[in-house]
Write a structure and sequence with these properties.
single chain, seven-stranded mixed sheet
Length: 400
């Protein structure tokens, strides 16, 4: 007998739980791609995409890709092969963006801040100050690294760039944070931001978004060539409907995204979405803190103000994390996230890390269910933990 039969719960940091309304919106025959509902809805859809990024005066290009593709798209439109960028890494995804740049023939300066600490604005300023010839064309950072669950301070890095009067473009990866953690692209001074459909935007994986301002578009105009698939100009300023997508649109993804944006922008409201994610994250942290009083379980990021509201990376004694993930999957129907980048898969430490995704279409009973099943799993596996975790989590929700 197993208790996992029933509706499964994918509690990983993306792809996230898809709302039934989004799936139902997608469940229809292929639409007319020349005129009608699909064509008519694009203007408002683009407007709402910009609203989620808090970019009233900027632009967005839509790609049929994932977050990795948007790394390439952002660079293809702004930096030429042989030019130089500065990448600020606090985990796997910053390092992978650097690898993408290198593969495109771009020279990379990498400042790595480790796996449990935030980006240091002073180190960024010092590095840029030393670039007296202004060879660095862009500064790249990840807002929330999904591997470590660190949340970096975007305005602080903008201030560091401005403080040394460096003209580099400022690019921010918001794949994990868009629609979960507060991000105000225009007010915070990002020139380029990237996102994808499958996390806070509650739409199946397959679409990526590159937001950019006029300064970034001027950089695009200065490039000798940009590959047609990545060129954001026709996608952001289309003469015809098909130019949004460089050909056939991702029809059913667009219907799903339209419904997801209705829920985020027009019903719950972005401020309330951010507040919900913050409170649910605090619920998880309260439980982990209580468990940690009688065991070896702890959040990867100690200072609360540096933790993401979309994902929490948790450490415990190896191999208990893998055993716990397997138990909650087999016995309770919940999939927890694996370790990513904090240890190599062949390292025993890899089995001492798991991640909880709490992004997008998530509410109080879903989080309490995950926490209850994690505690049940630790009890079944005889993993030591402190008392009062579920009471502490319930108290956070009660205070909301």
């Amino acid at each position: 007998m197993s208790l996992h039969n029933g509706r499964p719960y994918l509690a990983i940091p993306g792809p996230s739980v898809m709302p039934d309304r989004v799936l139902q919106a997608m469940h229809q025959p292929s639409p007319n791609i020349y005129y009608g509902e699909l064509v008519d809805m694009m203007g408002d859809l683009v407007k709402d995409l910009r609203s989620v990024a808090c970019l009233p005066d900027g632009h967005v290009a839509i790609y049929i890709t994932n977050g990795h593709g948007t790394w390439e798209a952002a660079l293809a439109n702004t930096v030429a092969p042989g030019e130089r960028v500065l990448v600020l890494a606090t985990g796997t995804f910053g390092e992978w963006w650097a690898n993408t740049a290198r593969a495109m023939g771009i020279n990379v300066d990498l400042l790595n801040f480790g796996l449990q600490d935030t980006i240091d604005p002073d180190r960024v300023a010092d590095h840029l100050r030393a670039d007296t010839a202004h060879e660095i064309k862009a500064v790249l950072m990840v807002h929330v690294d999904t591997a470590t669950s660190i949340r970096n301070d975007v305005p602080a890095i903008r201030a560091a760039i401005d403080g040394v009067n460096h003209p580099a473009l400022f690019m921010v990866d918001c794949v994990a944070s868009m629609g979960c953690d507060r991000f105000e692209m225009q007010n915070w001074g990002a020139d380029v931001a990237i996102a994808a459909s499958q996390k806070g935007l509650m739409t199946p994986a397959g679409m990526g978004f590159v937001y950019f301002n006029d300064k970034a578009h001027e950089a695009r105009k200065g490039l000798e060539r940009v590959s047609p698939n990545w060129d954001w100009t026709p996608r952001a300023f289309p003469e015809n409907f098909y130019r949004y997508f460089g050909g056939t649109p991702p029809t059913h993804h667009l219907f799903g995204l339209r419904e997801a944006l209705n829920m985020i922008v027009h019903e719950e409201g972005l401020e309330n979405v951010w507040a919900r994610h913050a409170k649910l994250a605090e619920t998880i942290w309260a439980a982990v803190d209580a468990w940690g009083t009688g065991g070896e379980i702890a959040c990867n990021i100690a200072p609360r103000h540096l933790r993401s509201h979309a994902v929490t990376t948790i450490r415990m004694q190896s191999p208990n994390a893998t055993a716990l993930r397997d138990w909650v999957s087999d016995k309770a129907g919940i999939t927890l996230g694996i370790s990513m980048g904090l240890a190599d898969p062949g390292d025993p430490a890899w089995h001492g890390i798991f991640r909880i995704g709490h992004m997008g279409h998530v509410n109080a009973h879903m989080i309490m269910g995950v926490l209850g099943c994690i505690q049940a799993g630790m009890s079944a596996l005889k993993i030591p933990y402190g008392d009062g975790a579920l009471d502490a989590a319930a108290a956070v929700i009660a205070q909301a």
